[in-house]
Structure formats: structure tokens, C-alpha cells
Amino acid sequence: MGGIIDVIDLTVAYDRQPAVHHVSGSFARGSLTAVVGPNGAGKSTLIKTIVGLMNPSTGRVERHGLGRRAIAYLPQQAEIDRSFPINVADTVALGLWNEIGLWGSIKPKGWKRIADALAHVGLEGFGHHPIAALSAGQFQRVLFARLLLQDSAVILLDEPFAAIDERTTADLLAIIHHWHEEGRTVIAVLHDMEQVRQHFPQTLLMARELIGWGATSQVLTDEALRRARAIAQGWTNNHNHATGHAA
Ligand SMILES: Nc1ncnc2c1ncn2[C@@H]1O[C@H](COP(=O)(O)OP(=O)(O)OP(=O)(O)O)[C@@H](O)[C@H]1O
């Protein structure tokens, strides 16, 4: 199909219930794409399958030889355990893991890059703070600093602005635009349609099945959003019918 990542008739299921259903399409190299759809539409499942954290039931994801290092992934904050006693600098340092390996040590140059990345996200001097003491917005900045060090060709973000304040969102959107200008491929799961219209040229709209994938202005029509909601509701009703739960 000719993208940097191609999704080919992809179905991914939990306990035989498909969360992603026969989705096909391509992420063009250097594209900036929002993945949108109602709750339970399969967005996170699609992202995890692209990263390689979940396996397709049928179909496949073609990564064209991109190695682990080439794909960076930011999970939803809710999936990250912040009780671990680690400080900000060491968290960002994990972004160098691909370069230095498990047992390698970070050279002064590496620590300088970590400090620079923290300054870039507006957290200069925060290196020694424990991550448990940060606000949600500050922690998201730390995770973006880590992505900066990872230096990956493809960056996947799962709801990067959920429960994040406006100021932080604006700063992190600027970093996403910068990645786009550098020619990286960025894919983000988002819920705010205005934000998508303003900042994301491409949109993938799904309700387990694909509703639309292309230029945001063409995909995000009222009609398509209504269709996505109706189809998602249909899946829920079917599931409840099959399991005997009330809708
Ligand atoms: N670990 C799991 N085990 C069983 N079912 C799951 C699991 N994770 C997700 N699902 C189901 O798969 C479907 C798709 O979930 P997914 O998280 O991919 O959707 P989403 O579009 O990211 O939703 P949201 O916008 O609410 O985050 C949902 O019906 C969900 O309940």
C-alpha cells in the first residue's frame, strides 16, 4: 500500500469479541494523523497492535522493516504506574535505552541531552524530583522529554492530552508540530474534535470498523460522526444481547 505503516484487513479481538474489525489503510511517511471515534471504538487496541503489543486475530500490520527503535509509544497515563520510586531524570533517561542498552551507563553527553530535553518541555531543574510528586501535566511533559530522546521515526500517542491542563496541551502540541516539521510520522488518539480540526491534517475515524481515513476536513463530517456513534452503539447492543446484559 506504500505507507510507512500499512494496516491490512486488520481484526484484533479480546475473547473473540473484535475491538478492531477489518480495518485497512496506510499511514503516509511524515503524516500527522488523529485517531478518533466513540468510547470503546478500538482506538487504543489499534495503536497497541501497530506498536506490536497485541497480535492481530486476522490481517496484519506491515511495518516495512521499522525496528523497535523506530517506533515510540506513549500509553494512556492511566496505564503507567507512578508509585515507582524513580526521579524525573532517570525516567527521561529511559529514552536512551535503545542507544545504551540495558547495562550501559549514561555518559556526561547523555546527561546533557536529558537536561536539554527537560528544558525543551519546560521542566528545567526538575531532574531530581520524584515522579510521584509531579502534577499530571508535569508528568506528561516528562514523558514527552523521553520521546524527544528516543528520536523515533514514528511516534504513537494514546490520548496525550487527557486530564492535561491547557497550557501544557499547547506546549505539547507545539512539540508535535515540530516533530511533523522534522518529517516524523505522528499518530495520536484524541477526543477533542476542534483540536483535531485545528492541528491534525489527517484523521482516521473508527467505530471498531473503519468509518473514514484521509484529510481531516473530508473525514470529520457531522454525518460520519453520527454514523460512528450509531455503529459503536450497534456493537455494544449486540455484545449485550450476546452476553445477556441490558444495554
Ligand atoms: N484488556 C481487555 N480485555 C477485554 N476487552 C477489552 C480489553 N481492552 C479493551 N477491551 C474492549 O475492546 C473494545 C475497544 O477498546 P479500546 O480501549 O481499544 O477502545 P478505545 O476506542 O481506545 O476506547 P476509549 O476511547 O474509551 O479509550 C472495548 O469494548 C473494550 O471494552
TrEMBL record:
Annotated organism of origin: Parvibaculum sedimenti
Keywords for the protein's UniProt record, in alphabetical order: ATP-binding, Ion transport, Nucleotide-binding, Transport, Zinc, Zinc transport
Keyword ATP-binding: yes
Protein name: ATP-binding cassette domain-containing protein
Record-linked PANTHER family: IRON TRANSPORT SYSTEM ATP-BINDING PROTEIN HI_0361-RELATED, METAL TRANSPORT SYSTEM ATP-BINDING PROTEIN TM_0124-RELATED
InterPro entries cross-referenced by the UniProt entry: AAA+_ATPase, ABC_transporter-like_ATP-bd, ABC_transporter-like_CS, Metal_Ion_Import_ABC, P-loop_NTPase
Entry GO MF terms: ATP binding; ATP hydrolysis activity
GO aspect biological process, one term: zinc ion transport
Recorded family membership: Belongs to the ABC transporter superfamily.
Domain ABC transporter, residue spans: 5-233
